[in-house]
Design brief:
Number of strands: 8
Strand content: 25-35%
Number of helices: 7
Order of helices and strands: EEHHHEEHHEHEHEE
Bound molecules: coenzyme A
CATH class: Alpha Beta
Number of domains: 1
C-alpha cells in the first residue's frame, strides 16, 4: 500500500501531510514513540510542559491496527521528505473493551453518559520533538475522519500524576474541546484523567 496523503497543511516551517498509516510506517511510528515515552529523566517540569507517553505500543499493535481499519484508526503525519513526524492511534470503544476487558472495572465510575457503540477510545497521539503544528494537524485530521465514519464521541486518558501531562491536557482542552469527565489511579499508581470530546 502506498502513502496517500488526504489532507495537506502548510505551516510556517514545513509541509505536513496527514493520512492513513500503512505497515511501512511502523518503524517511523516507533521512532516517534521512543522520543516521547517516559524516561528516567528527573526533568519533571520539562516533561509536564512537553508531554509524554507512559504505556508503549508494540510493532504488532501497529500492524494489527493497520490491518483492521474497521475498528482501529491509525494515522500518520509526515514531513516533505516522507519522514513520520507524528501519529494517532485509536480504537472503536467496544473493540477496545474486548481487547482490555478489565478497563471499566479498573476505571470505576465515571459519567459514561455516551453511547458506547458511537465512541472511539484514543490510545496515543504523539509528535516528533522540535516540530510545531503537527499535533494540531494530526488531531484535526483524525477527528474529521472519525466524524466521517459516523462516530459521535471520543474518549482519552491523560496522565495527571505523579507527573501531570499539562501539555496534553491544555492542548486538548483548549484546541479540541476535550472535557474531563472522571479520573482514577491505575495498578501501577499512575493517576489518569478521563476526557470526553463530542465529535
Ligand atoms: C501533545 C502533543 C501531541 C501536541 O502536539 P504539538 O505538535 O506539540 O502541538 P502543536 O505544535 O500543534 O501546538 C498546538 C498549540 O500549542 C502551543 N504550544 C506549542 N508548544 C507549547 C508548549 N510547550 N506549551 C504550551 N503550548 C504550546 C502552540 O503555540 C500551538 O498553539 P497555536 O496553534 O495557537 O499557535 C505533542 O506535544 C506530543 O506529542 N507530546 C508528547 C506526547 C504526548 O503528551 N501525547 C499525549 C498523551 S495524552
Amino acid at each position: 500500500m502506498t502513502f496517500n496523503p488526504i489532507e495537506s497543511n502548510t505551516f510556517e516551517k514545513e509541509q505536513i501531510n496527514v493520512g492513513q498509516a500503512n505497515e511501512n510506517d511502523a518503524d517511523g511510528i516507533l521512532d516517534v514513540q521512543k522520543e516521547r515515552i517516559l524516561s528516567e529523566t528527573k526533568d519533571i517540569e520539562g516533561l509536564s510542559k512537553k508531554g509524554f507517553l507512559i504505556y508503549p505500543i508494540s510493532k504488532s499493535d501497529i500492524i494489527d491496527a493497520v490491518s483492521n481499519p474497521k475498528d482501529s484508526f491509525i494515522f500518520v503525519a509526515k514531513d516533505k521528505a516522507g519522514v513520520v513526524i507524528g501519529y494517532f492511534l485509536a480504537y472503536d470503544f467496544l473493540h477496545y473493551l474486548e481487547k482490555y476487558p478489565d478497563w471499566k472495572s479498573d476505571v470505576g465510575n465515571f459519567s459514561s453518559n455516551f453511547e458506547e457503540s458511537e465512541t472511539v477510545y484514543g490510545k496515543h497521539v504523539a509528535t516528533r520533538k522540535g516540530v510545531s503544528g503537527v499535533g494540531t494537524a494530526i488531531d484535526k485530521y483524525s477527528f474529521n475522519q472519525l466524524r466521517e465514519r459516523g462516530y459521535k464521541h471520543f474518549i482519552a486518558e491523560i496522565c495527571e500524576g505523579p507527573i501531570e501531562n499539562s501539555r496534553s491536557s491544555n492542548f486538548h482542552s483548549s484546541k479540541f474541546d476535550l472535557n474531563r469527565i472522571g479520573g482514577y489511579k491505575d495498578k501501577n499508581k499512575y493517576d489518569w484523567g478521563i476526557y470526553l470530546k463530542q465529535l
